[in-house]
Amino acid sequence: MAAPGTCAHSDDGNRDFCVLAERLTHDLACVLERPDLRVIAGARRIGLDTALAGPFVVRADGMVVLGAPCLMVPACAPVVLRHALELARLIEAVPDDAVLAGLCAARTAALFAELDGPEGAPGPDWHADMAAANPPGIGRLRQVWVELAPLQPPVAPECAGEGAFDRLAARLEALWPLLGPAEKLMAEGGDARLAIDPATGLNHYGSSHRPRPWAVTYASSTASSVSERGFAGAEAARARLVQGDLTEDGAQVRAGMVAEVRRRIAEHYGMTGVEGVVLAPSGTDCELYALALAMLGSGGHSVGNILLAPEETGSGVPLAAKGCHFANDTALGAQVEKGGLIAGFPAETLLLSVPLRRPDGAARMPAEIDRDCLELARRSWRAGRHVLLHRLDLSKTGLLAPGLEMLDRLADAARADGATVPDIVVDACQARLDPVRVRAYLDRGWMVMITGSKFFTGPPFCGALLLPENVAARLRGGGLPAGLAEYCHRAAWPEAPAAQVLPVGENVGLMLRWYAALAEMTALREIPRPVVRARLARFLTALEAAIDSDPDLRRLPVPHPARPPLADAWDDRGTILSFFVRDPLASSGEDFVPLALEPARALYRWLNADLSRVVPEGADRALAGLLCHVGQPVPLPHPMLPGRVAGALRLSAGARLVSGEPSHDGLVPDLRMDREIGDARRVLAKIGLILRYWETLAAADPVQTYAPLPAMDSGAPVTLP
C-alpha cells in the first residue's frame, strides 16, 4: 500500500504552513497503517493530491487518490479511506453496474463511520440515510448519487437515468442486510454481548472485531480481539459474499460458503464429511442442540441431563440444558423470555450437576467425581429417564472430568439395568486439545462441542457441535424441537428431514466469525506438533515462575489434563493459568486475602484500560497506558472469604501464541517467544501498579478502550500505535 508523500505549500511559500502540512501528512500515514485498513487495502495503490477538492476519487485504473480534506482534517481520513477502498473493490467486481457499486460502498462507509465512534469528524448528510435500517427511497437515492458520482469514473447516462433507480432500489432492498464492514457483520447473529460500544470500541467481553495488536492479549479462556490474520479471513469472506450477491445467485453463494465452513471444520478434526457438523453461535447453543439430539435418541423418555461444574462453563448453560431460553434474545434476533421453556422441549427434562470443587475451592478427587456421575446416571435411568452425561474437557480453570474409564463402563451398566445406553457429550468448548483427541471422542460415539473462539482466538460466538455417525443418523427420522427455529437456520445443520422445521437462510455473522477462526486454525495446523509443544512449554514455564515469585499473586493449583498417551502431544499440559490477586485493602498482618469477585472484575477492566491519565505523578505512565486483556474472573470459593467468592483471573496460552501474531512478523521464533514472555510479565507488572494505586483508580473507575488514549498535551488527532 502506497503512503501519501505530497506536501502542500501555500502560494507565498509560507514555511509554517509547509511544516503543518508535513505533520498532517504524517498523521495521515499513521491512519493508512491502521491494522484494519492495512488489511483491506492490501496491495492497492493509494496516493494524495492536494489539488483535489473532494475527499477522494477512484481512478479508472483502480488507484485511490485522497484529496485535500484528508490532509487538512485527518480525523476524517479513516472513513474516507474505507469508503474509497470499498468502492474500488466493488467497481472492479461489477464494472457494468458502477452506480450500484457506488451506493453499496456508501452504505459500508456510513456503517464504518458509526463504528469509529464520536472521535471521527462529522460526515456528509447521506451517512445517516445509508446507515439506516432500510434503504432510502428512490428520490433520496438520486440525491445521494449526485454526491457520490464525482468519487468514481464517469458512468454511462442510462445507468443513472430516470428509470434506473427503480431497479437500483429493488437491488438495494435485497442487498441491504448484507452490506457493511466485516467488523459490523461479525457482531451480528449472536446476542447483545457482541454489540460494540461506540464509546469504547469494545464489546461485552472487552474485545474487538477489529485487530488490536497494540494490546497485550492472553484472554483466550474468555474471548479475544480478532487478529490481522483472522480479520483478513473474515474480510475475504465478506467480499465473496457481497460480490456473489452482485454478480450471481447470492443465496447459492451463501449456502456454499456455510457448507465450506462446515467442511473445513470437519477436515480439521479428521471427519469424513459434513454430515456430523452443526454450526452454533456459541457453546451454550451447542448445549441446546445436544439436548435436542438426546431427545431424538431417548425412545420417548424424558432426559436426565448431568452437567459437570456448571459454574465453570458458560453462564447460560444450565438453562439451555433444561431446554429453556438462556437470554432475552436469540442469535436470529427473536425476543424471548429468559428462563422460559423453548417450544418442543418438554418441561420434564431433569438437570443434575456434579461439582468439581469442594466448598473451600480445592479440586475434588477424580474418583469422587466419577462415583457421583455414575450414581446420578443410575438414578436417572432407573427412574425411566434417558441419560445425557457431560465430560468437561476443559473447565474455565482447566479441569477435566469425569474419567474415561468410568464413561467406558457406563454403557454396560445401563444395559445391565435394561436402560437405553446414555448419550455422552464432551464439552470441549475451550478447544484446548489435539484434533486427534476429538476424533477419538467421535469414534467412541460421543458428541463433541467445540468453538473457534477460545483456544483458537477467533471472534467470540462461533461454536459447533460435532456428531458421531450414530447420533447424526437420528436426524434422518423424527424432528427437531420447533422452538429451535428461533435459534438457527437449516443450513447450519446436516441436510436431513429432522431439520426441515428450521428456516431457510444463513447466519452471516456466524459464518464470518468462523472464517476468522478458521484462519487461526489453519495457521496452527501448519506448525509441527513438537514445535507447538515446545513453544507452549516455554511460555507456560516462564509465566508460572513469574506468578509464583510475585507475593501479590497466588496461583490456583490445577492438575494437568489426564489424557491417553499421544506422541508429541501438546495438550497434556494445562494452558490456562488461574490465579488470585491480593486484596490491597486487606490488613497487612493477615494471611493472603484474595480479591473478592467484584473487585477482581474491576481489576480485569482496569487492566484493559489506559490508566496513564489517572495514576499520579511519579508512576510508570508507559506501563499504566499498556492495554492488557486477560480472562474474565471466575467466581470461586476461598477459605479467606467465608460467605463470599473470590475472583480468579486467568492468563491463557492460545493458538496465536504458537503460530504468531501477524503484527510480530519479522521476529525469529526465539525472539518472538521472548517478547511474548516479556509481555506476559508486563501484565503482572501492571497488576502490581494497579494494586499500588487502588484507591485512586477506584475513585476514577476508568473504562476499557480499543486503543490507548492520545497524550494529554498533544493537539494532534488520535493515531494508533
Pick out the low-confidence regions. 1-20, 713-721
Count of helices? 24
The share of residues in extended strands comes to 5-15%
Instruction: Label the structural class.
Output: alpha/beta
Helix content: 25-40%
Rg, alpha carbons: 27 Å
The CATH class designation of the largest domain is Alpha Beta
Q: State mean pLDDT (0 to 100 scale).
A: 92
Distance between the termini: 18 Å
> In CATH terms, what is the fold-level topology of the largest domain?
Aspartate Aminotransferase, domain 2
Largest sheet: 8 strands, mixed
**What is the oligomeric state here?**
single chain
Number of domains: 3
Shape: globular
The CATH superfamily of the largest domain appears as Type I PLP-dependent aspartate aminotransferase-like (Major domain)
Overview of the molecule:
This protein has 721 residues and is an alpha/beta fold. It has 3 domains: 151 residues, no CATH class; 235 residues, 3-Layer(aba) Sandwich (Aspartate Aminotransferase, domain 2), CATH 3.40.640.10; 174 residues. It has 24 helices and 16 strands. The strands form 3 sheets. Strands 5, 6, 7, 8, 9, 10, 11 and 12 form an 8-stranded mixed β-sheet that branches. A 5-stranded mixed β-sheet has the order 4-15-16-14-13. A 3-stranded mixed β-sheet has the order 1-3-2. Helix 16 links the parallel strand 10 and strand 11. Helix 2 packs across helix 10, helix 5 crosses helix 7 and helix 19 runs parallel beside helix 23. InterPro entries: PyrdxlP-dep_Trfase (IPR015424).
